[in-house]
Amino acid sequence: MTENEISREIVDACFQIHTRYGPGLFESVYEELLSYELRKRNLGVKRQEGVKLVHEDIILDKAFRVDLIIENKVIIEIKSVEELKDMHYKQLFTYLKLTNLKLGLLVNFNVALIKTGIHRIVNKL
């Protein structure tokens, strides 16, 4: 599957979850539900994957954790906040750069309509 095909599955799963439960749950709950829904679609899902960062002579084996990595191609950063801030977009973009992945979805479930809470971030490599 391409990144775009994977992202369509992710968006559909987010829509199903949000339609059923709406806003107001913790990020960890949405992460669990989304992980479950994507696995039901036979997609490879990694949760809270630690990512290595190498800086000169320093190696940080788990410099940060990514909420979800789908099919080793798409990162999902899940939020349940009143308003996304610029730093949330920058955080996901940095994750994409450091993992050499092209596509990330920043998903804020704390919105009235989920389509307004899903944002694509592209790493042009």
From TrEMBL:
InterPro entries in the cross-refs: GxxExxY
Name the UniProt record assigns to this protein: GxxExxY protein
Organism of this sequence: Chitinophaga eiseniae
